[in-house]
Amino acid sequence: KFPSPQLVEIAHALEDSGNDFIWVARKIEDGEDGVFLREFEKRVKESNKGYLIWGWAPQLLILEHAAVGAVVTHCGWNTIMESVNAGLPLATWPLFAEQFYNERLLVDVLKIGVAVGAKEWMNWNEFGDDVVKREDIGKAIGLLMGSGEECLEMRRRAKALSGAAKKAIEFGGSSHTKLKELLEDLKSFKLEKVKNRLEGVA
Fold first, then answer.
1. Where is the signal peptide (predicted)?
2. Which of 104, 106, 123, 198 is positioned for an S-S bond with 113, CB 3.0–4.6 A?
């Protein structure tokens, strides 16, 4: 999980954004983080502006809801694919592995993402001293949830990619066709192995 200073920055950025939000947070033990986040949860629940989910969340169900306007992601491939399929732009927050490369794809190539400003590559579950400030997080959220031309164009691209993704998995679509070809290749390979084995026995 994020260290305490980063949790504080995220909480303030979400609250200050003025947008409704869902924050999926890992279950935490009692302590400084727990007290802060529970007080934050109580405050945003009373204002009816935010909702915290502790632990696992039904991500696909959330992403496909009409009320959701954008996603903050660590740029893991599953979340990227699910967000693209749902037609949502993304605020990118990579941490480790291939996530920084995925961020460049979303921000520079597909142009459906806005970077929050994470610079430091992490080891798994280890965090350095780099803290993304609430102002930078808020700026990314503002770009994604605004009404300016840049935001609208990003949404149009995300919707177009969603349409292409859905079309690809339909009967006769590119993904459907390639999967069928793969299965046929595997069947042919297996039949060839069986044939060679039988010829060897004969």
1. none
2. 106
Distance CA 29, CA 41 (A): 15
CA distances from 94 to 67, 180, 198 (A): 25, 34, 52
- In this structure, the number of other CB atoms found within 10 A of the CB of residue 195 comes to 10
**Which amino acid is present at 189?**
F
Distance CA 113, CA 99 (A): 13
What does the pLDDT look like over 14-51, one tens digit per residue? 999 999 999 998 877 666 677 888 899 999 999 999 99
Distance CA(109)–CA(41), nearest Å, equals: 36
Q: What is the DSSP string of 79-126?
A: HHHHHHHHT--EEE---STTHHHHHHIIIIIS--EEE--------TT-
64 — pLDDT class (breaks 50, 70, 90): very high
Q: 1-6 long-range CB contacts below 8 Å, 24 or more apart?
A: 1/25, 1/26, 1/28, 1/33, 2/127, 3/127, 3/131, 4/32, 4/33, 4/36, 5/131, 6/127, 6/131, 6/132
Give residue-wise pLDDT tens across range 89-121.
Answer: 999 999 988 999 999 999 999 999 999 998 888
SS3 content of the chain, % helix, strand, coil (to 5): 60, 10, 35
Topology annotation, domain 4-169 = Rossmann fold (3.40.50)
Residue 175 is which amino acid? S
